[in-house]
Amino acid sequence: MSTHRVKIYAGFERLWHWLQALFIITLMVTGFEIHGSYSLFGYETAVRIHNIVAWAFIILIVFAIFWHITTGAWRQYMPTGDRSIVTQGRYYAFGIFKGEEHPYRKTELAKLNPLQKTTYLGFKILIVPVMVTTGLLYMFYNSWSDLWPGGLAWVAIIHAFGAFFLVIFLVVHVYMTSTGETPLSNVTAMVTGYEDIEDAPEEEPATV
Ligand code: HEM
Predict the structure, then answer these.
(1) 87 assigned to some structural domain
(2) CB of 27 closer than 6 A to ligand 1?
(3) How far, in Å, are 116, 131, 198 from residue 106 at the CA level?
């Protein structure tokens, strides 16, 4: 089957993706040191790096929200409301190992499959806000500790729980990047912005 080169990711989208990856991994590495899991930079330095990168992450989130709203890219994440997510889940659990075709074809207007839509929407409207909110509460504990003296324990537990969740997300996410047309095609697209997409049957040149 023939393919054509398609621009999938805009420049800002790629910059946002890789900066977000860098920030989250740095927050993860320093966060688990603060948690006491290992010693790498030293506690004080780990806290300082965690605080600086947290602010950089928040600034990036503000730009990303602005970009999603102004370009209309937020629509990419809206669920379709049919059973398509089940089809996609079945494909990753069984079909992919039997060499079946991908159930959905990426296009310029619909780059996310139904399972990605739901996962990334959850990431954006649940995990990231929970991490930012609990992180800021942690940072400004002195301003509200009188209101809820035992509150920090809850904030720490939720923040650390979210961090564990993000580790799982990262492992699955990196595995998923290898499930495109070729093992590297998804990562290449996120670097260059372009991907070779299979032509739709109706786009096949007519043979005489
Ligand atoms: C904007 C986002 C974030 C803010 C404002 C923030 C802020 C903080 C603060 C202030 C602390 C406490 C440091 C101290 O004890 O002095 C902390 C701890 C921690 N952070 Fe974050 N953080 C953010 C995002 C993240 C992310 C994305 C992760 C991991 C993926 C993460 C993982 C952790 C972990 C594991 C701890 C230790 C929790 C504990 O056991 O007490 N943080 N964070």
Answers:
(1) yes
(2) yes
(3) 12, 31, 9
CATH number at residue 143: 1.20.950.20
Residue 73 has a CB neighbour count (10 Å cut-off) of 15
User: pLDDT tens digits for 87-114?
Assistant: 888 888 888 888 888 877 776 567 788 8
Spacing, Cα 149 to ligand 1 middle (Å): 19
Structural domain count of the chain: 1
Instruction: Specify the DSSP element, H or E, that contains 123.
Output: none
Write down the pTM of the prediction.
0.87
Q: Could you give the C-alpha distances from 66 to 72, 127, 208, in angstroms and in order?
A: 10, 19, 50
pLDDT for residue 207 is more than 70: no
Whether 208 is covered by a domain: the verdict is no
Question: In this structure, which residue's CA is closest to atom 18 in ligand 1?
Answer: 31
Q: Determine the structural domain holding residue 173 and report its residue range.
A: 3-203
Task: Write out the H or E segment, with its range, that includes residue 198.
Answer: strand 194-198
Q: Say which residue the tokens 């942690």 belong to.
A: 138
Query: How many whole angstroms from 165 Cα to the centroid of ligand 1?
Result: 13
